[in-house]
Write a structure and sequence with these properties.
single chain; about 120 residues; mainly beta; 7-stranded mixed beta sheet; 4-stranded antiparallel beta sheet; about 55% strand; globular
């Protein structure tokens, strides 16, 4: 069973920065891709950013130019650096990993980000 453990959420003022971390319990090369999703109250979960095994990245339009996803293969960890935060970024952020063999999606427990105006 794969575990994804997120950390780094919290309360930040608008315009501030924060970095989320997602530590996987196994080698992250075993995943097709890893990503961050978020879910705000009353809204559907949405993709924020994704990074593949060859470090290709993709971002939601709403975070392009402000968020950066990266990976540290030695630490089996994926990061989400969030700059110029806005109140509308407030959500629970979830780490996701898609298994390379059976394409199963693993999820972390989520970490809350609150951006105050």
């Amino acid at each position: 069973q794969v575990q994804l453990v997120e950390s780094g959420g919290g309360l930040v003022q608008a315009g501030g920065s924060l970095r989320l971390s997602c530590a996987a319990s196994r080698n992250i090369f075993s995943f097709n891709a890893m990503g961050w999703y978020r879910q705000a109250p009353g809204k559907q979960r949405e993709l924020v950013a994704v990074i593949t095994g060859i470090a290709r990245t993709n971002y939601a339009d709403s975070v392009k130019g402000r968020f950066t996803i990266s990976r540290d293969n030695a630490k089996n960890t994926v990061y989400l650096q969030m700059n110029s935060l806005k109140p509308e970024d407030t959500a629970v952020y979830y780490c996701n990993a898609n298994d390379r063999v059976d394409h199963y999606d693993y999820w972390g427990q989520g970490t809350q980000l609150t951006v105050s105006s």
